[in-house]
TrEMBL record:
InterPro entries assigned: BrnA_antitoxin
Protein name (record): BrnA antitoxin family protein
Pfam families assigned to the protein according to its UniProt record, in alphabetical order: BrnA_antitoxin (PF14384)
Chain spans, region Disordered: 1-20
Species for this entry: Sphingomonas longa
Length: 99
């Protein structure tokens, strides 16, 4: 078992070493505040590829998370169509129930 030594050096765990360099787009999308007061709100959030402009606004009620068991071939068919496959399942279900 390893020993917990509070005097040991952190080593390569310095977050500043791993932080990506900020781009102009990141600064443009970031929240700006002075003295704790927000001067400009953020216009997006930072994703793996840089600035993402955010999710669409909620229309009416929020979606409900559920657990649903589907046949593997059904899931595979929707996944083959690429990102957004869960939303396409939702659209297909809405059509079937007449919404």
């Amino acid at each position: 078992m390893t020993e917990n030594n509070p005097g040991s050096a952190v080593g390569s765990l310095d977050p500043a070493d791993d932080a990506p360099e900020w781009t102009d787009a990141m600064f443009d999308a970031a929240e700006f505040s002075v003295g704790g007061e927000v001067v400009r709100t953020a216009t997006g959030y930072l994703g793996k590829t840089g600035v993402v402009r955010g999710r669409p606004a909620q229309r009416g009620r929020a979606k409900q998370q559920v657990t649903l068991r589907l046949d593997p071939d059904v899931v595979e068919r929707f996944r083959e169509s690429g990102p957004g496959w869960q939303g396409r399942i939702n659209e297909a279900l809405r059509r079937v129930v007449g919404l």
